[in-house]
Amino acid sequence: MAAPDPIAGWHDYMRAPSAERLAALLHEDCVFQSPAVHTPQKGKALTMKYLLAAAEVLGGKEFRYVGEWRGERSAVLEFECAVDGKYVNGVDIIAWDADGRFTGFKVMIRPIKAFEAVVPRMAAALAG
Question: What is the pTM of this model?
Answer without folding.
Answer: 0.94
